[in-house]
Amino acid sequence: MLQEFSLNSVKLSDTFWKNYQALVKETVIPYQYEVLNDAITVDVQAERADDTLPTGKSHALENFRIAAGLKSGEHFGWIFQDSDVYKWLEAVGYSLINQPDNELETLADEVIELIGKAQAEDGYLDTYFQIKNPKLAYRMLYFSHELYCAGHLIEAAIAYDQATGKQSLLEIAKRVVENIQVHFGYEEGKIHGADGHQEIELALVRLYEHTQDKQYLTLAAFFTDIRGSNPHFYANEVKRNLDEGLSDEKPVIDPAYLQANEQPKNQQIAQGHAVRMLYMATGMAKIANHANDNELLAACERIWEDVTKRKMYVTAGVGSTVHGEAFTGAYDLPNDTMYCETCASIALVYFAYELFKINPKKEYMDVLERALYNGVLSGASVDGKHFFYVNPLEIHPDSCRHNPGKGHVKTTRPDWFGCACCPPNFARLISSLQKYVYTQDEENVYLNLFVASQLTTEQGVRIKQKTAFPYENQLCIEVDNGAGKLFIRKPSWAKNMQMHTEATVEETADYFIVQMDEKTRIQASFEQPTLAIRSNPKLWTNSQLLAIQRGPFVYCGEGRDNSMLFSYRVRLASISKAKLTKNASVLPETLQLVVSAEKVKNWETDALYNFVSDKEETSPAQLTLIPYHLWGNRGENELRVWFPEYTEN
Amino acid sequence: MLQEFSLNSVKLSDTFWKNYQALVKETVIPYQYEVLNDAITVDVQAERADDTLPTGKSHALENFRIAAGLKSGEHFGWIFQDSDVYKWLEAVGYSLINQPDNELETLADEVIELIGKAQAEDGYLDTYFQIKNPKLAYRMLYFSHELYCAGHLIEAAIAYDQATGKQSLLEIAKRVVENIQVHFGYEEGKIHGADGHQEIELALVRLYEHTQDKQYLTLAAFFTDIRGSNPHFYANEVKRNLDEGLSDEKPVIDPAYLQANEQPKNQQIAQGHAVRMLYMATGMAKIANHANDNELLAACERIWEDVTKRKMYVTAGVGSTVHGEAFTGAYDLPNDTMYCETCASIALVYFAYELFKINPKKEYMDVLERALYNGVLSGASVDGKHFFYVNPLEIHPDSCRHNPGKGHVKTTRPDWFGCACCPPNFARLISSLQKYVYTQDEENVYLNLFVASQLTTEQGVRIKQKTAFPYENQLCIEVDNGAGKLFIRKPSWAKNMQMHTEATVEETADYFIVQMDEKTRIQASFEQPTLAIRSNPKLWTNSQLLAIQRGPFVYCGEGRDNSMLFSYRVRLASISKAKLTKNASVLPETLQLVVSAEKVKNWETDALYNFVSDKEETSPAQLTLIPYHLWGNRGENELRVWFPEYTEN
User: Fold this and answer.
1) Which of these three, B379, B394, B410, is where a domain ends?
2) What domain of life does the UniProt record list for this protein's source (chains A, B) (predicted)?
C-alpha cells in the first residue's frame, strides 16, 4: 500500500506543468469566479443539443445569496449548480498551497462566509432544495445530487484547510455530514439509499484520511454498501413523491445508468454514466484500501479491466455515447459520436491513482498519465477561458452542424456550460498535480511522473527531480538525506531507459529501483520515439487505422495544418522518422510532429462513387501533428487522431 | 419526354423478378392483410428506440370498422395508419394485373367496401380524425397526414381501376379530392397550406394522368406552390389550435424538416425528412413535366444533384440520421448510424424515374437500378414476412444493443412496425416493377432494365426481352412489327457491351440505338465483372475503404460467412478475380462472391492499444460476399459493405 504525500511537501518547478498551474491561478480561477458570479458576459452553452437545458448564465453564487436570504429571487441552473462553487473553492485551495495570494484568499473567505450563511440551522445545505423545494430534500436522490454537492463541499473544505489552516469551510462540511448522518443509515426510519450521482463516498473517505475520524469511513462504506441493495429504491422514491403529491415528475429510472442495479461489490462491468461509474469506483477503491475489503477490491479490478481493456479511447477518454453520458458495450468506441467527457477522464485519473496506491503496477500510472496529458488537458483552451465537455477524436465541422447525432460535439471550446462540471474539475486537478508525482510506502519513495519538482518527506528525505521533460529526455535526480529505495517508473512509451548512478540499481519490468543514500545522484535517460499505435482488432471502428504518440502525448492532425485532413494516409515506417518542430501558432515549445505521408488526390469528377481498377492516386505530403490536447485552439476545423495506414510500396 | 407504358402492356417472365412478384402475391400480400386485420400474432416493433411510439398491433382495418360505425372502440396506431391499408390495396391492384386471383380480388373488394362505409357524407375520410378528433380535421396539417393518406388512397384507386376496371375505390378517392377542393385553394377563406408530409401532390398528378382531368393537376400545382410560401403556416396552426382550445400540443415546428422553409421551386438542397423530400421532388418533377415548368424542373435537378452527388449511400440508401429520419450535410454518410429508410430508397426510384422521363440520361436509370436492387430489396426478407425500416451498411450487433445512438438500427428484420410505411411500400413497388422496364417517346422505345419480359405497345410493336440476367450476361431481343428505334441502356456496371444484330446500330455514351423493323433480332452481350468502388475523397467516413459491386448488386460481408468480419482487408487487384459461387443457405442462384483477402490475426494480448513497429500480422483469407439486399436473412450477425483496402505487396 502506498501513501500520498501532502500537497505542500512537493514543490513543482516544471516548465510544462508550472505553466498550466499558473494559467489556472492567473486566468482560470479568476475567470471562473467572474462566471460563477455572473459578473462577465459569456456564452454559456448547453452541453448537448437540448433546448430544455439551462444556458445563458451560471447564477451559482447568486443561488447561495438567495438561499442565505441576502437576495430575493429564484434558483437558476442545474440542481447541482452549488458544486461549481465548491470545485472552484477546491481549486483555489490547491492553488493557494502552490502560489499563495492574499487577495484570492480573501475572496475565497468571502465565498465561504456566504456558504456558511446559506447553511440551514440543522446543517442542511443545498441551495436548489432550500430555495425551490424544501419538502423534497433527501427525497429524490435519483436526481437530487444533494450528497454529490456535499461531497464536493467536503473536498473543497479539505483543500482549503490544507492550504490555509482555516477550518470554517471544514466546519460547514462537517455539519452537513452530521445532517446526513441524521437522515441516512441502516437504522430503522433512516433512508436506506445513496445519492444517484456518486461523489460523497470518495469525499467521505478523504475526510476520514484528513481527520482520521473513522465515522466518515463508516458512512462512506454505508453509501457504498446500500447502493443497489434494493434496485427499486429510486423508482420507489418517484412513486412515493407522486403518491404524496410532492412532485409530478415521472422519470424512468434505469438502475444501470446510476450503477444501482446491484451493489458495487457485485458490479461486473463498467456501465452507465461514466463519471458516476468512475467516481463510485474511486470511492470503492479507497474504502477497499482502508478497510482491506478484498471483495470490493476485486470489483474495482473488474471495472478497471473492463474500462481499460474494452472501453477506453487512446486519449483515455471514456464514455462512448451522449445518451446518458455513458459507457456502451465492449469495443464500442466510435471516434466521432463518442462523449469522452473531460470529467470522466479526470475521474479515471482518480480511479487509477487509488488502484496504484493499493498495488503500484505500471499499468495504473500509464493510464493515469495518458488521461492527464490527453483527455484531461484537452478540456481547456490554452487561454484558460474556454472548455470542452466532450472530447472527440474525429471532427468534420459540417457534420457536427448538420448531423443531430453529433449535436453534443462542439467544434471549438465554448466559454462555459450550463452544466459546468468540467471547467472547475479541470482547475482542481491541475492545481493539485503534485499529488500524483510521488508516493511512498513505509520505506520507499515512488517517482511516478516526470515532473520537475522537489519532494521533502516527513522523514526528511529530499528528492529533487530536475528535468525539462517532455521537451527533453532526461531526469537529474538529486537525493539528499536519503534512505530506502527510490522506485523510478518506466513509462510504457519510453525506450532505452537507463540509470546513470553510483547507487545500486535493480531493474524490474515496471521500475528502476535505486538505493537512496545520504547523497545519491541519478541521471536517468530515455528516448521518446514517435510511436505508432494500433488498436486491438476487436475494436472494429479503428480497423486499419494508426494513431501516433510521442512521450505521453497522443497526437492529432487538424485541418488548419493539413487541408483535406481526411485524405491523408500514413506509412508505418515513416512514423518513427517524424520530425519534431515548433508551431508558434499553438505550441509554446517544440512539440509539433511532421510525418511523411501520402495524400489522396481530389477527384476530377464530382461523382460520389466510382468503379476503380487502379490504385488510389496519392501524392507525397507532410502530415503535421500536434499533441491532441491542443486541438481546437485555432478556430473550427477538421480533427483526426486515427489515420488510415498506407502500406503500398 | 418519355411516356410510361401501361402496366398490362408489359408481361414479366423474369426469373429474378417473377420470384419476387410471386413472393409478394403469395406471401407478402396475404401476410400483410393478416397483420392489418390483427388476425395473426406478430411482434410489432417501434421503428426506433422510443417508448412513446405505437407498437404491439396494427389495428389499421379495425380503425376503418370503427369509423364506419360497424364496431365500437378507439383509434389505435399512428395518425397515418390508414395509409397502410391503401398501400396494401395498391399492391393488390398491381398484383392482380400480373397474377389475377379471384379470391384476392374479392377480399380487396370487401376492404374497399369498408373504406366506402367509413367515408363521411361530405367525402372526408381519415379514420384518426373521424374517430378521435373531428374538430381538428384539416387543422393540424403539420402532422395530420390527412392529405398524405388521401394521396395513397388515390394511388391505390388508380391501381385497382387499372387491374379490375372497378371504379368504386376511384369514386371514393375522387370524393375525397372534392372534399379537399372545398377546403383548400388560393381563394379567400380556404386553407393556404399543404400537408406536412408530401404525397398528395404526386398522387394528384397520377390521377390527372389516369383521368386526363386537369383539375387534379391544378390542385397538385396548388399544393406545390403554396408550400413554404408562408414559412409560419404550420406554427400558426399550432398557435391557433392552442388559442381556440382545440389542442394542447406544442410541437416545435422546423420548417426545413418538412421542406416548408421556402417554396419547392426555390429549394436549393435535399434537406429534412428524406421520404417527404423525395415524394415532394417526385411530385415537382411530374408537375414540371406536364406543365413545362422549367423553374420547378431546375429545382428538381438541384435536389437530384445534391442527393446523388453528396448525400446518397452506395446502396442508394438516403437519410443519414434517425433524428427526423432526415438528410444531414454534404458527404455526411456514416455507415453505422445512418437511417436509409426503405421508403426513402423507394422514393428515390420514383424521383429518378420522373427525371428520366423528362430527360432520359443514363444517370437517372443507373440510380433507379441501384436503389431497386439494393436499398429497396433489402427492405424485405427472403421469406416475405420480415421487413427493414432502417438499412444499415455496417452492423456490429453488440454495438446496436448497447449504444443508444444505434437504437434505430435493427440487426434482423422485425415482423412488422408500429409505423408500417415500409412493408406495403415495398409490396407496391415490386408488384409494379414492369412500369420501369420500358418507356417510350413518340417514335421510339427505351429498354431501361434487363428484365425478361414482353412489351406490346399501343401501336402493336412487340418486343420480347429474353434473358437470365442477372445470372447470365446476355439479352435476346426479338422485335416484331417494329418501327422507330429501340434505345438499349448501357448500365454503368456493364463492360464490353456489344450488339449482335443485322439491324442498324448507333452507339452513344448512354445507349445502343437499334433501328426496329418488321422483324428485328438483337443479341446483346455484356460482362458483369466484379467491380471495386471507391468513394469520393470528400466522403471522409469511407476513407481508404472499398466496396464491391457486380452487375446491379452491391455486395456485403456477413459475420456468418466470415468470422471477425471487421478483421478482413481486401486487395484491389483481387476483386476482379472474385469467384462466383452458390450459397444454398440464402441464395437461390449463383450470386455469392468469394474474394481472396487478408485477415488480421487476433492479438495474443487483450490490450486495447499497442505500440507497433511491424506491419499488421495478416493471413490469407477468403472473404465471402453476398448481395447486400440479402443480408440479415440468417440471424443476427456482423455486416460490412465497405472494407479496408490492403495494399501491401
Assistant:
1) B379
2) Bacteria
Which 387-426 residues of chain A touch chain B by CB within 8 A? Answer: 396, 398-399, 401-405
Question: B616 forms bridges with which residues in the sheet?
Answer: none
Q: Which of residues 258-317 of A touch B (CB under 8 A)?
A: 308-310, 312, 314
What was the pLDDT predicted at A648?
63
Residue A8 lies in a domain: no
User: Is A443 in the B-facing interface, judged by CB distances under 8 Å?
Assistant: no
Residues 241-260 of B with CB under 8 A from A: 252
Q: What is the ipTM of this complex?
A: 0.95
Directed axis angle between helix B82-98 and helix B60-67, to 10°? Answer: 110
Does B400 qualify as catalytic in the annotation?
no
Strand blocks (E) in B481-636: 485-489, 495-501, 505-507, 511-515, 519-527, 530-535, 545-550, 553-558, 568-570, 579-581, 592-600, 609-612, 618-627
Pick from B309, B612, B644: which is nearest to A532 by CB? B612
What is the grid cell recorded at B615? 506491419
Which of A252, A543, A555 has the most B C-beta neighbours within 10 Å, making it the best mutation to test the interface with B?
Answer: A543
Distance CA B528, CA B472 (A): 9
Q: Tell me whether A229 touches chain B (CB under 8 Å).
A: no
Beta bridge partners of B191: B184
Q: Which of B328, B336, B536 sits opposite A607 (nearest CB)?
A: B536
Give the count of domains, chain B: 4
pLDDT for the residue numbered A586: 74
Cis peptide before B54 (omega within 30 of 0): no
- Is pLDDT at B30 greater than 80 in this prediction? yes
Residue B46: name the closest of B340, B425, B398, B390 by CA.
B390
Q: Are residues B285 and B310 in the same domain?
A: yes
Cβ neighbors of B209 (< 8 A, separation 6 or more) are B290
CA angle (A641 as vertex; B645, B614 as ends), nearest 5: 55
Which amino acid is present at A303?
I
Smallest Cβ distance to A608: which of B252, B539, B567? B539
> Taking a C-beta distance cutoff of 8 angstroms, is the pair B645, B544 a contact?
yes
Contacts of B306 in chain A (CB under 8 A): none
Neighbours of A344 (CB within 10 A): 31
Q: How far is CA B597 from CA A65, B142, B554, B572, B624, in A?
A: 68, 51, 18, 9, 10
Cell numbers at residue A499, please? 540509470
Interchain contact, B337 vs A405, CB within 8 Å:
yes
Q: Which of A471, A494, A528 is the last residue of a domain?
A: A528
A276-314 per-position pLDDT tens digit: 999 999 999 999 999 999 999 999 999 999 999 999 999
Which single residue is written with the C-alpha cell 500520498?
A: A4
Position B214 in a domain: yes
Please indicate if any CB of chain B lies within 8 Å of the CB of A576: yes
Quick check: is B476 catalytic?
no
Asked whether residue A450 carries a pLDDT value surpassing 60, the answer given is yes
Q: Domain of A486?
A: 438-528
Taking contacts as CB-CB distances below 8 angstroms, the residues of chain B near A601 are: 537
Same domain (yes/no): A342, A449: no
The mean pLDDT value of chain A amounts to: 96
Q: In this structure, how many other beta carbons lie within 10 angstroms of the beta carbon of residue A585?
A: 11
3-state SS of chain A: helix, strand, coil percent to 5? 40, 20, 40
CB atoms within 10 A of CB B51: 7
Per the document, the length of chain A is 649
Order of all β-strands in the sheet with B462-467: B10-12, B453-456, B462-467, B474-480, B519-527, B495-501
- Cα-based angle A473, A469, A634 (whole degrees, multiple of 5): 120
Q: Is residue A557 part of a domain?
A: yes
The verdict on B513 and B537 lying in the same domain is no
Helix (H) or strand (E) holding A487: strand A485-489
